[in-house]
Amino acid sequence: MDTFEEYIQRATASGPDRKLPGAVLIVTNKDGIVYSKSFGSMSMDPASDLSTTPLTPDTTMWIASCTKLMTAIASMHILPEWKNPQILVGFEDDSGKPILKDAKNKLTLRMLLTHQTGLGYGFSHPELARYCKYANIPTIGEKRIVWIRRSAWTYGVGLDWAGQMIERVTNKTLGSFMEENIWKPLEMNSTTFRLQERPDIISRRADMSMRSADGTIGPSPTRFFPDSAIDDQGGGGIFSCPADYAKLLISILKNDGTLLKPSTMEDIFTPCLTPDGISSLRENRAAGYNTFRESKAGSEATKQLIPQYEMNYSVGGQISEKGWLNGRKDGSMSWGGLPNLMWVVDRETGIAFFYASQLLPPGDAISRAAFERFEYAIYNGELGDLGPKAS
């Protein structure tokens, strides 16, 4: 059987059998990076010079929902409540006009951070997609507070609204607030919301790739997220590089007060969901992104390999609870980003790891399998003496 590195090298090698455009893989402990290797190239476009340029830890990527971890950390500095959201309960039969009613309960910051508001993404919930089309609202970065009619846990724009809240409370842009409280202290010098203002970061950017319905990969016709963002979107608007994101994971493991007080960092990892919320989380995770699943390009790729593990959700991300077979310990926190980026912080073992790529659509089965093999290799010593061993 191939080693993990032989497997990933073959999967990213140029040629007709190529399975992945590339990935940057990093493992850290609290003292720094203990493993870092890159595979594949910066582009699948044969006409581009980037097609022969290797990915590196300094390659710029749209990290999408990996942004959420930084917004959660930034949000823990302030804890207000919001009022007067509206709930989308249906549509009029004749006109198709949305039917909205006022919510009875307050919308709290913790609800925003843990996706317990019903504020979904338009691109992943058919009801919200229909509402956004009616109201002429882009499905990324929706600004009007409208709930879909469900409770407990609904993945969506809560962190974007939390970012707006930070801006209003501090009278600073979210990027400026993160620069002051996260990026500058950690020397994350290649991280920004405002890509158009950073030619040095643009110059190192990888192209976006896409897997077609037949399983082949090639250049993506879209980058999915705009280069010229109007707002600093706390749910998914950051451009960064794997080396910078590793600095964030290292600091979380170190928990020395640079990002947050140690006691506040505990809140980042504390499970928040009720049993109903856990059921909704599992349902959402298993369903994947509905719009992409129903599209021709995404019908097969987004049939997610969601394991039957026990999980919860905290301010910072998904919390592993029982049954994670590769070696990840209970209480580990994880999440990812739309172009098939995935990260894990395992405090009990003392490691964090990051799989970074730029491949559409999200939930790609081959990318997920590569990540799982990466995780298994970490915990079983295949990548060298990184500290952890599977139990």
Largest sheet: 7 strands, antiparallel
Helix percentage: 25-40%
Order of helices and strands: HEEEHEEEEHHEHHHEEEHHHHEEEEEEH
Work out the count of structural domains: 2
Give the CA-based shape. Answer: globular
Specify the number of helices. 12
Model regions low in confidence, pLDDT < 50 over at least 5 residues: 80-84, 139-150, 289-307
Q: What is the SS-derived class? A: alpha+beta
**CATH architecture descriptor name of the largest domain:** 3-Layer(aba) Sandwich
Beta percentage is: 15-25%
Distance between the termini: 22 Å
> What would CATH call the homologous superfamily of the largest domain?
DD-peptidase/beta-lactamase superfamily
Rg over alpha carbons: 20 Å
| CATH topology descriptor of the largest domain | Beta-lactamase
Mean pLDDT score, rounded?
83
Read across the widest sheet, the strand sequence of neighbours is 2-1-16-15-14-13-12
Give the CATH level 1 class of the largest domain. Alpha Beta
Q: How many individual β-strands?
A: 17
Q: How would you summarize this macromolecular structure in one to three sentences?
A:
The chain has 391 residues and is of the alpha+beta class.
Describe the protein in words.
By secondary structure, this protein is an alpha+beta fold. The protein folds into two domains: 4-76 and 172-379, 3-Layer(aba) Sandwich (Beta-lactamase), CATH 3.40.710; 81-166, no CATH class. Helices cover 30% and strands 19% of the residues. It has a seven-stranded antiparallel beta sheet with strand order 2-1-16-15-14-13-12, sandwiched between helices. A three-stranded mixed beta sheet has the order 6-5-8. Strand 5 and strand 6 form a beta hairpin. The longest helix is centred in the C-terminal third of the chain and has 15 residues, at 365-379. The chain is globular, with a radius of gyration of 20 Å. Mean pLDDT is 83; it is low at 80-84, 139-150 and 289-307.
